[in-house]
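User: Please predict structures.

Assistant: First:
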Amino acid sequence: MSEQIDRSQDFSEQEGIRRAKLMELEAQGASPYLQTRFERSHLSQAIKDNIEQLNGQPVSIAGRMMTRRVMGKASFAHILDGEGRIQAYIKRDDIGQDAYQAFKNYDLGDILGITGTAFITQTGEVSVHAKEVVLLSKCLKPLPDKWHGLQDVDLRYRQRYLDMIVNPQVRDTFIKRTAIINAIRRFCDSRGFLEVDTPILHTLEIGAAARPFKTHHNTLDIDMFLRVETELYLKRLIVGGFDRVYELGRIFRNEGMSPKHNPEFTSIEMYQAYADYEDIMNLCEDLIRETAIAVNGSAKVMYQGKEVDFTSPWPRVSMAEIVKQESGIDFFEWADDAQARASLKERHIPVEPHFTRGDCLAELFDRYVEAKLVQPTFIVDYPVEISPLAKRKPSDPRLTERFELFIVGAEFANGFSELNDPIDQRARFERQVAERIKLGGTNASVDEDYVNALEYGLPPTGGIGIGVDRLIMLLTDNASIRDVLLFPTMKPQG
């Protein structure tokens, strides 16, 4: 192999030493890359959990060597596998002089297979007494210093594989992420919701108020867009006769990046026929509370030094009411959009020329209210201008039966009684399209097929979208969305 592949590039001193060891192994016909498999009997945690039964019994483990102490004719090493670390005891007289010398020549980070017997040391540590040690893969780059770990945040995100090797808490976060997603699925399934898949590639630039990623389908010779939501397709399925549906998957929005925003993220959208936004708020409350209990064992969690209590019931406060309470400005006193904009200008709050009364109320909410909502709180009854897919309140057509859930000063969910009037829906689509075109840089158009579906009749329906990544941040006590994404979006280096 060394005759076919140039391994003599310019490397650091440590990398050069490791590559020299590899070339020596290859010259001996002992390349670790020729190993195709290794039969493991147990992972580390299983041996620790069952040591009473396994003590003195044959076991085989495999993983990355993270530490090593050589003490003459015997050595200790810690092996990292998918469940954690376990100590290995390697003695020259047990594995043979040649094998022991080879082991001493291995490097930290090398991946080893060890066959032996399980036992407990005099200090009480569960270990494996090695009878055979096999080099399964060579680590050609030195691991970060064990005392300092991998501290560079940018490097941690770019090289998540290295981050997971040296930072055990990171591995724990992603194990917990999977547990949270599984708990969400179990909840939905237990409530009779059917999991479905809808298209990621859309032909129309419409839906949520978000900028999509654009691509081109060569065969059809048309532009297509990565989805910014799953809502319109899921509601088509309600029209088709499914009473309860959900989709848990990736959403793509070509917008800014922050500790709470990534261009691609995971969300769950759920729709239930013959339900309104009150029913959906109850559903949301149950889902998050039960998920928290399932993964953390409690309805109370600590997040960035603050206790968050998911115990029911959660407050439900109208947007206009809480804005008036915190800012002194009354939404209902605005006669029109111009007066609303003027009201904000008096407070020296920047407004855009296209801002409606609803936009102005949302701006006041962002400025005066959002950061104060630490405990789970539903903000309800949003203005119709900023809720193009929500049903109007029968008691006040200026408002909609819409809610958003806020926790620790951030939005976690958005839901409403779904608009099922096809005439009203078309009119709102047309206004939305006109506004987006006016702002420029868009080819948005009315989703005629969705309007057509509504004309066949959408039953009274409630729906919700929940940001799964933000929920995972909350339940794992991580301040940045990048900490709960295995491979967050990063600007290329160089």
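Second:
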Amino acid sequence: MIVLWVFQTFFLESFYTATKSSQVEKNAQVISRSIEENKNALGTIENVASYNSLSVYVYDSTSLFTLKYCCEYDNPVSNLNFQYHDVYSYYKLAEENDGHYMFITSNYKEDSIKGKFERQFFEEYSSPDTAERNTVRYASAPDKNVQNMVYTDIINLQDGSECFLIVTSSITPLTNTVEIVRDQLAIVSVVFVLLAVIISLYASYRIAKPISKTNTAAKELAKKNYDVDFNARGYLEVEELNETLNYAKTELAATEKLQKELIANISHDLRTPLTMITGYGEVMRDLPGENTPENIQIIIDEATRLSTLVNDLLDLSKIQSGSIQPEKSEFCLTDSIKNIFTRYAKLKEQDGYNILFESDEDVYIFADELKMSQVIYNLVNNAVNYVGEDKTVIVTQKVNGKKVLIEVTDHGDGIPPEKLEYIWDRYYKVDKEHKRGVIGTGLGLSIVKGILDSHKARYGVRSTLGKGSTFWFELDIVSVKKRNKKNSDENKE
């Protein structure tokens, strides 16, 4: 709107003049070519002049500018105040400008142009004939407000003679038009500004209201008010933001709840061994004969359990912060699993657990041996904690091409399908009732996930309610060594 207003106010007249000038010049050139080539010049002049509302004058410049042809369709010479010395003046102007000249003038302004050559004309052509001719077509009292466009051209004919072409066209006064357009644009501008202000205020209200509502709800969420609801509606982006915030609210609420449960469970797990260590220590101190190997072993076991819990908490924190990077080397995974099984000898003997390892080959991998041992140990501990009535845990090693697959299977109650994706979470427990595990701390699966992620390994779990669960992971193989049947059978015991 601003650009249109500026153009119409300041450049309309000059744009119109430039366009008109270009049109007159093109039409004059058409006429000049027809005269120069002597191709139906009269017909061309008539057609061009009538179609474009022009006045065309052709003079014989070798014979005192005798008028050869006149075709007046716009502002005849009587209104232009043409005299013969005026034609001479126009001729001289064209001669000084490479044979053609274009200018815009009124009868008032024209005097200065024609006066330049008027004295020269009378000196060259002074005679009674010229004096008589100069009285011809003189128009008095010309209209000073009328502007005219005059284009002149000197034409060299094929026979060596010369013609002088004058093409004229009046210019429509645009002063009033510009004033009218300026006033109209001013009114339109005011109307548009008012409409823009009204629309802006309305749009701002529509946009700001849901954003303000969302902002208020976000402040409540920051205060840990998880009952707040992000339900502001308006634009698509606002609705998508509210959906995201509602999801974040749900996750934050769940995370805080799980954190509280974890703190409670860890506190219980820390308090229990400390209480037992303190209790047995006081009994051994105060009661004669209680300083027995059994009581000492209980203190040792509880201290070991306490140390394991603290170490697991530290490991989990380091893994999730990214401060621990795997120290990879080539080692035999099969032998590493066998060594881990020696830790369960007491558990198998005292509590009747049946922990089996099935493998037919010695598999070598490139990984962090200590961390991979921790993975297997935690998976076996998890299986022991949730084993079924048969108290059987099976660890299977399978070679699939260039990959080795390790599976740890129990025959417990299994995991509901809707909870499978959450079991790796740091604060998640399948059963909400916390129980003191037989072995381990309850953080094993989170540690397993962190270690396997650092090795870019594939892992997962398969579970069937009432039948048990199988945790698995897969690693790249460096090499495989076959074992004889006897060694394979011994490995399954």
